Amino acid sequence: MARPVKKRNICALPTTGEFCPKGGGDGEAVVLGVDEFETVRLIDHLQLTQDECAAQMQVARTTVQAMYNAARVKVADALVNGKRLVITGGSYTLCSRAQNCCGKNCVHRNCACCQGSASCGCGCGCEKA
User: Fold this and answer.
1) Closest CA relative to residue 51, chosen from 41, 61, 40
2) Coil vs helix vs strand at 54
3) How many degrees, rounded to 5, is the angle at CA 124 between CA 102 and CA 90?
4) Averaged in consecutive runs of 10 residues, what is the pLDDT profile of the chain (129 residues)?
C-alpha cells in the first residue's frame, strides 16, 4: 500500500486562479496544484532556497524539489504551447495566519506555520524571538 501524501503548509493562496493567453487558450488546460504554486512563489518570487522552502512548507527538501520541477514543466507547457494555466487542488493546509501575512519572506517571521526567528517589522503581529 502506498504511503499517504503529507499535507504541505501553504502561507498564501494565489490571488489569481487562472491565466489564459490573449486570443487563445480555449483548448487543453494545464493544472498546477496550489502546493506546486507555493514552491514557485517561495523559490522564484521570494528567492528562498529549496531547504528554506522545505522548512516553511514542513516537508522534505526532496519533496520540494519534485514539486518545483513538476511546476516548472507545467508552466513551461502553458507558456510554450499557449495553454490555459489553472491553479487548483493539491495536498495542502493553509496557515492560520495567512490573512495577516505581510507578503514578506515568512521564513524570517515567528509565526505558527513558519517558526522563524525574527520579526518582519511590518506590524502584522509577528513577535521577536
Assistant:
1) 61
2) helix
3) 45
4) 83 88 81 95 91 90 95 95 92 73 50 45 45
